[in-house]
Amino acid sequence: MNSTNAGLRHEVQKLAEDAFHRHLISGYGDSEYSQEYQIVLGGKPRHLPLERARLLLQRLLKRST
């Protein structure tokens, strides 16, 4: 994994932690695929590309403020 993906994955993880603690998602974690991140939303696990995961989490967090 290159440093850009590692940085993006780290950013997504921090956003997911924040969303989880605000009860906006019910789970999160690394996907079995290196370019994706797993987010549990509405009881359903979703494997999203890192960019889409970041956008989703940013929108959820923005809506909750």
Task: Tell me what the structure shows.
The chain is an alpha+beta fold and 65 residues long. The chain has one domain (3-54). 52% of the residues lie in helices and 25% in strands. Strands 1-2-3 form a three-stranded antiparallel β-sheet. Helix 1 (3-21) packs parallel to helix 2 (50-64). The relative contact order is 0.20. The mean pLDDT is 94.
Short description:
52% of the residues lie in helices and 25% in strands.
Order of the strands making up the biggest sheet: 1-2-3
**Count of helix runs:** 2
Number of strands: 3
Low-pLDDT regions: none
Instruction: Give the count of structural domains.
Output: 1
Query: Averaged pLDDT, please?
Result: 94
What distance lies between the first and last C-alpha atoms, to the nearest angstrom?
33 Å
Query: How many whole angstroms does the radius of gyration measure?
Result: 11 Å
The ordered string of helix (H) and strand (E) elements is HEEEH
- The level of helicity is 40-55%
Q: What percent strand?
A: 15-25%
Anisotropy-based shape: globular
- The quaternary organization reads as single chain
**Largest sheet geometry:** 3 strands, antiparallel
Q: Name the structural class.
A: alpha+beta
List keywords for this structure.
65 residues, alpha+beta, 2 helices
Topology (elements, then pairings):
Blueprint: H1 3-21, E1 27-30, E2 36-41, E3 44-49, H2 50-64
Antiparallel strand pairs: 1-2, 2-3
